[in-house]
Predict the structure.
Amino acid sequence: MKITNEIKDNTIVMTLDGELDASSSVLLDEELSDPEIMKYSKILVDCEKLNYISSAGLGVFISHLQRFEDAQIKLIFFNMQDKVRNVFEILGLDLLMTIVSNYEEAMTIADE
Amino acid sequence: MLNNKNAKTLLVISAIVSWILLLSSALLGAATVRQTGTPSAILPYTNNFLIVAFIVSVFFYQRIQSENLKGIDFIGYLWNLFSKAGITAYLGIGLYLGYLLTADSAESDATVLLQVVYQVNFGLMVFFLAKAFYIWRQLLLYHKNKFLQIAWDWFEVLLFSTLLLTVLNFDYSSYIFLPLLALLSFYILFLCTNLKWVAYLTFNKKGRSLVLLGAILVSCYIYARFFYDLSDRPELQIDYFNVGFLLLAMLFVGLYSLFAFLVALFSLPTSSVFEQKSEDLLNFQRLSQSIQQGQSEAQVYETLFESTIKASDASAAWFETIKNSATQLAFEPFNISQEEIDSIKQLLVAHNIQSVDYINNNLDRNAGFHDLGIPWKSLIMLPIHSKKHQFGMLYLLKDIEQGFDRETINVLKTFTNQTVLTIENLRLIAESLQNERYKEELKIASQVQDSLIPKSFPSDSWFEISTHALAAKEVGGDFYDFLQLSESRIAIIIGDVSGKGISAAFHMAQMKGIFHGLMQQDMAPSEFMKQANSALSRCLEKTSFITSALYIIDYRMKGFMFARAGHCHTLYYNSMTEDTFYFQTDGLGLGIIRDKSYANHIREMYYDYNPGDVMVVYTDGIVEARNTANDEYGEDRLLYMLTQTYHLEAEDIKCAIINDLEDFTGTDILYDDQTLLVIKFKQTQP
């Protein structure tokens, strides 16, 4: 699992590369727990290279969801592979989280 | 074969007897001379025989005695020699002086008295020589090799063979034997160079041994002088100076004492170096033995700290441990205040040399250090680190320039390397113990999990159910359960707790409790999910959630009600329409939203079943099972399997699906729990 952050103004584009399982979800949790991240108003998560997400990985996003919402930080997922999206959908997370098809769409929604 | 005790008694007796005989022979001889004026002709042979018997008895007695000497208490050896034998020389000379004083007043008995004094001194000297001879042997053969042992054995044989000269009454100073004796003297010279034991004496012990050796040398001198002076006195019947053996033994004892004295004297200045090295060695041993002794990391660091201060003779030092890149003083700094440490560290941080060996042998030339006004002129910084971890940092200071030379640095590095090894081993041991405990806990957890899953379902005429549950190596979070609500109604729940291990097993147990608790009140599945969500919200950790699906089947109504909370879609075969499909319903997992708004995210569904319908309920371990090419088994393949097998009994459908799944994954390694329930509705029998 590789996590890279790209910062543009008030937006963080976080790229997830690999499999998000129990061990790599610790990395993600560290990344999202970073107080620095609260300075930005938008977090766009690029899931193009995310091949697999385990319940531990989902748990990390779920645990931060409320915090971002309270701080009015928008969390948007884009470029998600079908099988990963299916996992989100089965769990019902697609109704709670914003999942869009590509970066442009993500930027438009983020700017609303 | 005589044992040692008997041999010793025998030797003591023969020594005493031969000595008394010698004395009486001497006195008799003196009396004969006085009466007849000519000495007896047979006497020399008898006397020589007695002398040899006495010498041999005493030497052999000491030889046996010396076998008790063991260990490396060299000072003890020397003290033993001096206090038991060396002192006799001083007694002997006292005796002689006493004789000289009385000889003046009592003229007539002077010869007799001289005989006695001479005889007594002879006995004491032989005793001294014998004792010294065998104690020196013990020291000489310290750290011996085979060659040295043989050389010594030959020396003993040759030396004792010179007694033959005495027995046969040859004069050793005749030209035939003199070269042989000279050769033997060279041999002695060679033997006297074996003084390894001196090197093992510390500075203090060398001082004490010098005193003792000096006293022993004086003893040798007294005896040699006494017998030399008295050798040509006509009134003496026996001249022991003529016994070549004694001369050689005295030469050996004296020379060896002298050599030892000189070597000890001249090695005094270098003994501190040797002491330092042997202490370093001992400290290395202490470090490497820390593991067996079950010491803690702090104790290992303390050993390192003390050893390196001693090894480098540092005038100040401190040690920091590093944990999660934060440094912390491990224990009291040595000769340095906290303020001084802080100021030095600030300078070092500015140099940016956190994890390298840093040696500055001339702090005064560095402006920064010079301005600090600290009394030290040399600094060495030694990181304690392995390839992966940095454990700590050792700082040593010295008040002289060029304080840390290459030799010292090598020793210090050996210390730090040994410490790293020791610490890593200690951690490995702790880790394996922890693992062992963890495994034990997992075993308990999986037993708990196993006991939470029902082993048998109620068998009834209107439906059949078949289950499959396989836990991954670690304890997973799959569970299922049922509750008979009334005669015609049964509730079946399936779920998956996120996470693994003990916490998952724990949440499973909670979920089972919630299921049984809430369903006593017989509520609709959606209501159950809402209440379960509210109950779990209070006890589930933030990153955990539970997916679940609850089915309430009513065979009188021939229908079932169900709600899905983020769990896998239910696979269904409708025998009327001959259609196989997934129920596409919405439903959010439990514990994701932890307030009342959860109610908006759960849907309930009612479905009428027909006899012959098949319901397949499962967890994500089934559809997300992967093969070696990393492809997932998937919902499509599962659906296809049901279209091929719906006509079979529930048990056979289950087996077919599981066989297909095993064919697909190909390996025995399970990444997630797999749970599969196949429910087949049947025509009700009257």
User: Anything to note?
Assistant: Chain B has a mean pLDDT of 86.
